[in-house]
Amino acid sequence: MKVMIIGGFLGSGKTTTILKLGRRLSDSGKRIAIIVNEIGEIGLDGDTLSGTGITTEELTSGCICCTLRISMQYTLQTLEEEFKPDVVIIEPTGIAFPGQIREEIQNMGLSELSFTPVVTLVDPCRFGTEVSEIPKFIETQIREAEILGINKVDTAPGERVLATEKMLSELNNEARILKFSAKLGDEQFENLLIQLEVPGLEKSTSEKQNSIEVSEVSAFSTRYALVSSLDQEKGIALAEESLLSIRNRVSEINPGFIGHVKLSIKLPESVVKGSVTSSKEAPQVELVLNRKSAKPELRLLSAITKVPKEALTEIVESSIEGKLREAGIPFEKMEQKGHEHGDDHEQGQGHKTRVEMNTLMKPGINKIPKTETNIE
């Protein structure tokens, strides 16, 4: 079983990258499984990936490089015994340390295990290009990588990409640097697939760290049942206005915040997906067609730097509920099943895992649909 770890800070494009990688590997006849780790109590990326037909498992309410290690071990063992995948792609939280994840997996005693090179994705438009401006935990992600992927080059000025490449070289001159657009699946993205065919190397990591504490990121997620349905135009407007409200109010507390606010609205025949990743970015919203939903629902996951959890919770809830009322959409807040981050996660409790073992993908069956979705 080959393990592929695709890391990177919140909003760097991990889900889109993994979606494309999974499609390519599946089309080549390999059995693929994906493990998605969300820091919040509710997952969004797991829904996106499992909707493609690939076996997907979701670990929430913590980080697999520290507080959810036991959950991670159980998940990998279950996959190994019941599915026997050729490749397991792991999408850690945006604050995780990918090298630390690899070390933890190596120590689990799983049989016939190998690793591809550890990947860290970087969005060149998100941070300053001076080493001194990079948050310490993101610097650790960069130093632990064997491949550094400068993603979203289709939206970044060329000089910004070059400056980011220079900064990454200063932090980690041993890593291979690739510049691509996972969204477009360009030629350089295809080169990433080639680079991942080479076995990964063992790299010594720094002392074990708790990524949640080190990153100073607060996380909150919530979920609402929408009592009445709404059309696509109204869903897009609701997503844009909600994200804009949250961004503006968070900016009042931390004008230079970085992080990720992700939102999905399930409509009868489609899903509206949106995100915002910094105080300077406009909300990005798209409509994913041919996604039927049993019941209308809104989900939101937020993870923001240097904003108190209580303040983030109040901002998210009041913004979402206020916009729903303005739009005249009856709603009902759904009960959270997750728990606060804490020691209970180390005992394998307080997390949610969705296991879809009855629909495991076999060669030639449940191939990923060809419809493109670009989720950041």
What's a quick, concise take on this entry?
This protein has helices at 14-27, 45-50, 69-82, 98-106, 136-143, 158-171, 187-195, 211-215, 232-253, 309-326; strands at 2-8, 32-37, 55-59, 87-91, 114-115, 119-122, 147-150, 176-179, 217-226, 258-266, 270-278, 284-289, 297-305, 331-333. With 376 residues, it is of the alpha/beta class.
SSE topology sketch:
Blueprint: E1 2-8, H1 14-27, E2 32-37, H2 45-50, E3 55-59, H3 69-82, E4 87-91, H4 98-106, E5 114-115, E6 119-122, H5 136-143, E7 147-150, H6 158-171, E8 176-179, H7 187-195, H8 211-215, E9 217-226, H9 232-253, E10 258-266, E11 270-278, E12 284-289, E13 297-305, H10 309-326, E14 331-333
Parallel strand pairs: 1-4, 1-5, 1-6, 2-3, 2-4, 6-7, 7-8
Antiparallel strand pairs: 9-13, 9-14, 10-11, 10-13, 11-12
Mean pLDDT: 79
Class by helix and strand content?
alpha/beta
Tell me the name of the CATH class of the largest domain.
Answer: Alpha Beta
CATH topology of the largest domain: Rossmann fold
Poorly predicted spans: 338-376
Order of helices and strands: EHEHEHEHEEHEHEHHEHEEEEHE
End-to-end distance = 27 Å
CATH architecture of the largest domain: 3-Layer(aba) Sandwich
Shape: globular
Into which percent range does the helicity of residues fall?
25-40%
With helices defined by DSSP (H or I, 4 residues minimum), what is the helix count? 10
What is the number of independent domains? Answer: 2
